[in-house]
Amino acid sequence: MSKILLLQGNQAVVEGAIAAGVKFFGGYPITPSTEIAEQLAERLPEVGGKFMQMEDEIAGIGAIVGAALTGKKVMTATSGPGFSLKQEFIGMACSSEIPMVIVDVQRVGPSTGQPTSPSQGEIMQARWGTHGDHWLIALTPASVPECFDLTLRAYALSEKYRVPVILLMDEVIGHMREKIELPDTYADIPQAERKQPTVPPEKFLPYSVDESLVPAMPAFGSGYRWHVTGLVHDETGFPKGTPEATLAAQNRLRAKIENNVDDIVQVENYKMEDAEFAVIAFGGAARTAYESVDMARKEGLKVGLVRPITIWPFAEKQVKELAEKVNGILVHELNCGQYVLEVERVVAGKVPVHLYGKYDNEAATPQELLDEIKKAMANK
Amino acid sequence: MKHELRLSGTGGQGLITAGIILAEAALLDGKLAIQSQSYGPEARGGSSKAEVIISDETIHFGKVTCPDTLLVMSQEAANKYTNDLGPNSIVITDSLFVQNVPGFTGKIYALPITHSAKEELGKSLFANIIALGAIVKLTGVVSDASIIEAVLAKVPKGTEEANKKALEIGMSLIK
Amino acid sequence: MTMEKLVEKYFRPGRLPHIWCPGCGNGIVTGAIVKAIDKLELAKDDVAVISGIGCSSRASGYLDFNTANTLHGRAIPIASGVKMGDPRLNVIVVTGDGDSTAIGGNHIIHAARRNIDLTVVIFNNNIYGMTGGQYSPLTPIHSKATTAPYTTIEPAFNIPELVKAAGATFVARATTFHAQILADVIAQGIAHKGFSVIEAVSACPISFGRQNKMGGPADMMKWQRDHGVPLAAWDKMTDEQKEGKFPIGVLHHDTSKQEYTDAYDGIIKTAQGGK
């Protein structure tokens, strides 16, 4: 049995977290993500989980690192300034391979910016916000039902690859209310499992891997006593700073993601079958783009939409194929041009790549985007 | 059929709640709906708007671009949220707060919304539900049964009768 | 148990020698922690040791428990998450004076306020040792440091008073000279259900002692002997006699306040009972 509800994107993330089996949330209130904390404070103890409002954003993500070490599925949620503050821990989670989901409901920046206005200004920060080379996953929902689905998927990926997953939302989707159909009970929803050791504790090497390149992660208190560190470490988990150990550690962290892009990267194609021109848009900006594409079609223009659902790793293969298929691309994003840089890199001049960046606190209207599409098509 | 509504006024008038109720009523009717809002940093005071789009078909873009129906419950909102009205837009104003809708020459229903709330129910906080009654009666955008169900599901226990009365008062303002 | 036996039982094989300089007090404090754990007969699987970054924080890697050497200043939030995730665990935070009271200062006062059941052992060597001798919030005023070539003009924190005011329910201090007292108060801190802080006054002859002409390691231990006064004696001293000295022992112990994870269990009961 299921129920039909009118929920905000942020609320759908909360329900997705409960359905995914999240048992710990640590966070700090910040607009426009606050509803996630508020509602998890109510929902988590109902299912035996725990919620902690920490003293700051850093402590919020720190606490979830700790709870993750005890075997729990964990979440933190934030926006702009808070996302900046969490970056050091995101790096530790990459290095120590601690599964977690970080929700970032983007708002206008830099600095305090416009707390209640939409933006997609953290595309590059989601990829490169923490220092050092690192690999992680970021997903971007474009509807309320997708907020629920991608929260589940974020946990599936995070546990499978032992990597932090960023659920990169924006204010448009976080605060919009729309119809969602949810099951009456989450009991039948498959739970992502964390890989467990197959050897007894005395033989356990915490960072030794099989062909999946993903190490097993027993919980603190389970009888497997292991050491966690953000220092470069070898398979024993203890610091080792030799050039060989450093290279091996970095290469494995990269390969475990890059070898699996086909599993990780999802892209939706909308009216692309016969499209001669493609719009690339994601999250809240995609909502405008669907409608602009519909309007263009009504005028007989063969325009389609390519919507990256996985933002990172970049949909390299899909964009390469797209460049073979269409004769022009317009990237529409709610910033001055971030995702477009990757599109340009991969398209590499094969077809013209245009940008319609909107960064005035408001989502573009379908008519505004349609005008830009026409302009771009005219000077392809 | 797609119907775009904007409910605008001052923070604290319950317009976002009204927008959610309207969208929920549309779902009860088996339609699709999107509700969104925009507000400043203030929890109370300051301009506020809630937008609702109701349609039988998939709604992609969630913001109102040309309101079919606009509710205006403050003069500041009348000045701020009316520049995208079309010739066929219907405007409902709260006559207690709104003197004019600048630049709009179409049909305006100036209704004593807050006045009726105070006079007939003793509290201005019923104004948002009275406004919903008027909107539903005027546009038929959702069914009477669904708006009643949606209102009753949302309001605090013990206030059901008063809110039902508020809906009726709102409907009766449209002759 | 002899220290040799304790090392065999509680230290990870193959992880020694440690990185600490000759004369450093960190080994004595780490030894006091395992003595305390041994005294309480805790199973190794039931102990988590979470550290931040700095010389003292390296201790977690040498110890055969569930351990994490985390980020500078952030051991306490991580430890809070460990405790919330599995309240059965005895969670010990190993941290330095800079780690816990400068970059991590916000965390320690809020964990104290919550009264979450962690035992925080602050290795106070009055300096940032790992980076080579910059002043910390525990460097005494008018001391020299590499970032205070003309001496510091900032007063130092009084850790016990700070955490007591913030709500810690067990507060103690000892020195590496008073190693037995140190082990005893750490054991009491672990046994206490609530937020416990133990200030372990520890010598850094290389990065602090040398700059401040405190002599060698033995001289610094003598300084601890002459300045750390057991509480019973301290209470009989005049203000004049107390000048420049500090009390050691259990300075504050309050069992009247509810512990945080216990309180949260109440929240779960309320949330589930309301349905």
Task: Describe the protein.
The complex is a heterotrimer of chains A (380), B (175) and C (275). Chain A has 380 residues and is α/β, with parallel strands linked by helices. Chain A has two domains: 2-183, Rossmann fold; 268-378, 3-Layer(aba) Sandwich (Rossmann fold), CATH 3.40.50.920. Helix content of chain A is 40%, strand content 22%. Chain A has helices spanning 9-20, 34-46, 57-69, 80-85, 87-96, 123-128, 144-161, 171-175, 243-258, 261-264, 283-298, 316-325, 339-347, 366-378, and strands spanning 2-8, 22-27, 50-53, 73-78, 100-108, 114-118, 137-139, 164-170, 177-183, 227-229, 267-270, 277-280, 303-308, 310-312, 329-333, 353-357. In chain A, strands 2, 3, 4, 5, 6, 7, 8 and 14 form an eight-stranded mixed β-sheet that branches. In chain A, strands 11-13-12-15-16 form a five-stranded mixed β-sheet, with helices on both faces. Chain A has a two-stranded antiparallel sheet with strand order 1-9. In chain A, α13 links the parallel β15 (329-333) and β16 (353-357). Chain C is an alpha/beta fold and 275 residues long. Chain C has a single domain (13-273), classed as Thiamin diphosphate (ThDP)-binding fold, Pyr/PP domains (Rossmann fold), CATH 3.40.50.970. Chain C has helices at 3-10, 26-39, 59-62, 75-85, 97-101, 105-114, 159-166, 179-191, 205-209, 217-227, 231-234, 239-242, 260-273; strands at residues 47-51, 66-69, 90-96, 118-124, 127-128, 134-135, 170-175, 196-201, 228-230, 246-253. Chain C has an eight-stranded mixed β-sheet, sandwiched between helices. The interface between A and C is large, with 44 and 41 residues. β9 of chain A pairs antiparallel with β2 (32-39) of chain B, so a sheet runs across the interface.
